[in-house]
Amino acid sequence: MKLDQLRRSDVRRCAEIEEILFPGDDPWSAHAFHSELDQGHHYLAARSDDGTQLLGYAGLAVVGRRGDYESSVHTIGVVPEAQGQGIGKALLRALLERADELKAPVFLEVRTDNATAVGLYEQHGFQKLGVRKRYYQPSGADAFTMARPAQAPARDEVAG
C-alpha cells in the first residue's frame, strides 16, 4: 500500500466507496469530493502497491491564518475488503502529520456506534468533547465530537 494525493480521476471511485460504506446515511457524492478538492483541502489516497486500486481516502480541512490554524478530519474511508490492514491508521497518521506541520488542533465527528474508529482516534490523542444527537442523516445516528490538541511536528521535537 502506498499513499499519495487524491486525484480528480479518483473521485468517482470515492463516491462508489461511500455508497458501500454508508448506505444508511447520506454518502458523499462525486460533487462533494470535487468541491473539497476545489477548496484546496488536503486529500490523500491509499493505493495498492501497483497503484491500480484505490483502497481508501482521507481528507483534512484547514482554516485560519498562519499561527492560528484549526483543522478538521472530513472523511476517512477504506474499502471493506482492505479494512483491518492498517490503511485507515496510515491515512489518519498522514493527516495528523499535516496538522502537526501547521501546529493546528484537529477536530472530527464519528458515529457513536463505530467503536473501531473511536478507538483509533483515542489511540491518536483524540478526546471526546460531546455528542451531536441525530447528526448522521437519514439514519439519525449520533456522533461524538472529538478533538486532538495542536502538536509540534516530530522534526521540531528531534531538532529541539
From TrEMBL:
The keyword Coiled coil does not apply. Keywords: Acyltransferase, Cytoplasm, Transferase. Coiled coil: none annotated. Residues 1-151 form the N-acetyltransferase domain. SUPFAM superfamilies: Acyl-CoA N-acyltransferases (Nat). It holds the Pfam family Acetyltransf_1. GO terms for molecular function: N-acetyltransferase activity. Belongs to the acetyltransferase family. RimI subfamily. PANTHER family: ACETYLTRANSFERASE (PTHR43420), ACETYLTRANSFERASE YPEA (PTHR43420:SF44). NCBIfam families: rimI (TIGR01575). This is Ribosomal-protein-alanine N-acetyltransferase. It comes from Amycolatopsis saalfeldensis.
